[in-house]
From TrEMBL:
It comes from Flavihumibacter fluminis. Residues 709-736 have a biased composition (Basic and acidic residues). PANTHER family: 30S RIBOSOMAL PROTEIN S1, S1 RNA-BINDING DOMAIN-CONTAINING PROTEIN 1. CDD domains: S1_Tex (cd05685). Residues 639-708 form the S1 motif domain. It comes from the Bacteria. This is RNA-binding transcriptional accessory protein. Pfam families: HHH_3, HHH_9, S1, Tex_central_region, Tex_N, Tex_YqgF. SMART domains: S1 (SM00316), YqgFc (SM00732). Residues 708-741 are annotated as: Disordered. The lineage of its organism: Bacteria, Pseudomonadati, Bacteroidota, Chitinophagia, Chitinophagales.
């Protein structure tokens, strides 16, 4: 890689040259980001995945820049215009925008007013005016009046067209106008008058007459305005003051007060209006869109990471319900590995209302299959079905969970689901997906297109290839962070393991089906197409429970097994003893095992893993209940303090499910008593929160929520007053409460003798 690019990357990311070079070389050798972050800490200087990814993206940027330079040099050379100075300037360029500015005058283009003027022979007149010498431009123009040029006025117009294009293609001019856009551009939007009264336009009414400095406009607002423009309701402009811009250009090109200089001034004003301003505006439309995309993608990616790393129930027998009214609740029973062992349908809700029959069915299935937990989809009839499940006395503890079913229908109709369950319809597949999400969200969600999970903002408006690339990287990161059970993982999960392709994932599953469970990581080498490099990349992220070598169920990489074996040998014990006995681990002299290839970071990771081998890094699952007093939006009142679950995090606020089939919004200003710049700093996806209802708009189906302390205290007071009023009403109905047992007996005797 060109040293100048390495230097730029290192400076931009505040890294050493060595770190950038090492990441580049590891990538060239085929190393993945998770592998570099976990098993090459000495080489990277203990960089995390985020920084390594940034280096990888910068490397890709400069590789693309090099390819573009080749095209530019070849094109200019074919025109016979490539001088040594121009070539050196292009080669030294480290910025794509700067490269395009250099290339612009040589870029093949369609017919323009300037090119037509040149064809008419007006180039020399434009050059004479450009020099701004004394003399009359009109008199000079007379010499160019001929058949194609009707008058001196036409000749001057053609010359100004040539000069206007020259100004618009000048690198200094573009830099000056670009600088003005960066510092003082205003984003303006307005509604199309013909669409103003349309119902669908109303969602954009905040932008009907809107303006804001572009530098201060948040990404979600830019994306909203662009969506309104795309749908044909809004017009969007990015403006700068012409009265400031044109004098800036005149300072670059006007040399004196000659008559020719006046022609230059006219050309500059025309160039700004017709060429330069639209060109740079388009640039900023693109750059702000890209920046807004990146921020939206980052929000989506972080939400997805949190969702994928949500707490798993673990290996337990589950009964899962996909709720519904008329079509009933599809019910499935799954074993500890998520295999389907039973499916049926119950009809507890209208119109059938088979409540008791449904209770009996669930009770019988829990007993028959040893069910330990129940998972219920949070869609239509979810709350009612949860009430049903919680009303049943199973004679033993059976946890009940509401499961976010977003994207389950996408999975159930997918090729993946048809391949897994060819003999079952989409409703059964959907219920299975709900149950498996409870067992292990990560293993199940990798089967669904990440965009369908619904945890982003404007995900359909952003660059789709960039979004997919980012989300795939997040899935890969999460899968490798958690680790994968080699003997139970589906090929869809294995595909995201470091170094494994779809073909290799399929080969691993086929090998397992033919030869039985893997007994060691070493056995992986027998899988078709599993080469040494691929084994190196994937082995540390694959786990084998109950393996002969306990390290095979840990994140310790096989390449460092000899180090652990040396530790055990030096302490006269077995590797298993090191794992089980903390006092032995405390006796290890870390420095003794540091070598040229294995440093302190690796030794530290090995010791952490020996302490808790194969430990799932995800938090344990917690049971959660919504407020039983609210089931629909009509039940929600301003001032209520209710429990909820965070379902989506955006830059402008947080969406929370409070159990009424309509998420409420905590605006960023309502998240905390102190200033919040990013909602992700305050809450996490799937977090359980207490919120105060601040607004209920039934017509627009909007619920406003707050997490501010003051709002909560006020809400709790109101709720206590409401409960107090309800208690008094009940007391009046029941009569006075007996003060003690003696008083109660006395009251009974009085009633008897009356």
């Amino acid at each position: 890689m060109d040293p100048k690019y390495v230097s730029v990357i290192a400076q931009k990311l505040s890294l050493s040259i060595k770190q950038v070079v090492n990441v580049y070389e590891l990538q060239e050798e085929g190393a993945t980001v998770p592998f570099m972050a976990r098993y090459r800490k000495e080489a990277t200087g203990n960089l995390d995945e985020v920084v390594i990814t940034s280096i990888v993206e910068e490397i890709a940027y400069f590789k693309d820049l090099e390819k573009r330079k080749e095209t530019v040099l070849k094109t200019i050379d074919s025109q016979g215009k490539l001088t040594p100075e121009l070539s050196a300037k292009i080669v030294a360029c480290i910025n794509a925008t700067e490269l395009e500015d250099i290339y612009l005058p040589y870029k093949p283009k369609r017919k323009t007013r300037a090119s037509q003027a040149i064809e008419k022979g007006l180039g020399p007149l434009a050059d004479w005016i450009w020099e701004q010498q004394s003399g009359s431009p009109e008199a000079a123009a007379q010499a160019y009046v001929k058949e194609e040029v009707k008058s001196a006025k036409d000749a001057l117009q053609g010359a100004r067209d040539i000069i206007a294009e020259r100004v618009a293609e000048d690198q200094q001019a573009r830099t000056a106008i670009r600088s003005l856009f960066e510092t003082s551009a205003i984003l303006v939007s307005r509604v199309l008058s013909s669409k103003k009264e349309e119902a669908d336009a109303q969602k954009y009414r905040d932008y009907f007459e809107f303006s804001e400095p572009l530098s201060k406009c948040p990404s979600h607002r830019i994306l909203a305005i662009r969506r309104g423009e795309k749908e044909g309701y809004l017009l969007m402009d990015i403006n700068i003051e012409k009265a400031i811009a044109v004098p800036e250009l005149e300072r670059l090109f006007v040399k004196n007060n000659s008559e020719a200089a006046e022609e230059i001034r006219l050309a500059i004003a025309d160039s700004f209006d017709r060429l330069l301003k639209p060109s740079i505006e388009n640039e900023f439309r693109l750059t702000t869109k890209n920046a807004a995309d990146e921020e939206a993608i980052q929000v989506f990616a972080e939400n997805l990471r949190q969702l994928l790393l949500a707490s798993p129930l673990g290996s337990k027998r589950v009964l899962a319900l996909d709720p519904g009214y008329r079509t009933g609740c599809k019910l499935v029973c799954l074993d500890e590995q998520g295999n389907l062992i039973h499916s049926s349908t119950i009809y507890p809700h209208p119109p059938q209302n088979e409540w008791q029959k449904s209770v009996d069915t669930i009770k019988q299935l829990v007993k028959q299959f040893g069910i330990e937990a129940i998972g219920i989809g949070n869609g239509t009839a979810g709350r009612e079905t949860e009430t049903l499940a919680r009303s049943i006395d199973f004679g033993k503890p059976v946890s009940v969970f509401q499961v976010n079913e977003s994207g389950a229908s996408i999975y159930s109709a997918s090729e993946v689901a048809r391949e897994e369950f060819p003999d079952y319809d989409v409703t059964v597949r959907g219920a299975v997906s709900i149950g498996r999400r409870l067992l292990d969200p990560l293993s199940e969600l990798v089967k669904i297109d990440a965009k369908s999970i619904g945890v982003g903002q404007y995900q359909h408006d952003v660059n789709q290839s960039r979004l997919k690339e980012s989300l795939d990287r997040v899935v890969e990161s999460c899968v490798n962070h958690v680790g994968v059970d080699l003997n139970t993982a589906s090929k869809h999960l294995l595909m995201y393991v470091s170094g494994l392709s779809a073909t290799l994932a399929k080969n691993i599953v086929e090998y397992r089906q033919k030869n039985g469970p893997f007994k060691s990581r070493e056995e992986l080498k027998k899988v078709s197409l599993m080469g040494p490099k691929t084994f190196e990349q994937c082995a540390g992220f694959l786990r084998i429970r109950e393996a002969v070598n306990p390290l095979d169920n840990s994140a310790v990489h096989p390449e460092t097994y000899p180090v652990v074996e040396s530790m055990a040998k030096d302490l006269n014990c077995k590797v298993k003893d090191l794992i089980e006995k903390a006092e032995l681990r405390r006796q290890i002299n870390r420095k003794k095992y540091i070598s040229e290839t294995i440093g302190e970071f690796t030794i530290e990771d090995i010791l952490k893993e020996l302490e808790k081998p194969g430990r799932d890094p995800r938090a344990p699952i917690e049971e959660f209940r919504f407020d039983d007093s609210i089931k629909t939006m009509e039940d929600v009142k301003v001032g209520m303090v209710v429990p909820g679950i965070v379902t989506n995090i955006t830059k402008f606020g947080v969406f929370v499910d409070i159990g009424v089939k309509q998420d409420g919004l905590i605006h960023i200003s309502q998240l905390s008593d102190t200033y919040v710049s990013d909602p992700a700093e305050v809450v996490k996806l799937q977090q359980k929160v207490k919120v105060t209802v601040t607004e209920v708009d039934l017509a627009r189906k909007r619920i406003g929520l707050s997490m501010k302390t003051g709002e909560r205290k006020m809400g709790e007071r109101k709720m206590e007053e409401r409960r107090g009023g309800e208690r008094k009403t009940e007391e009046r109905k029941k009569g006075p409460e007996p003060v003690n047992d003696f008083q109660a007996k006395l009251n009974e005797l009085k009633k008897k003798f009356k």
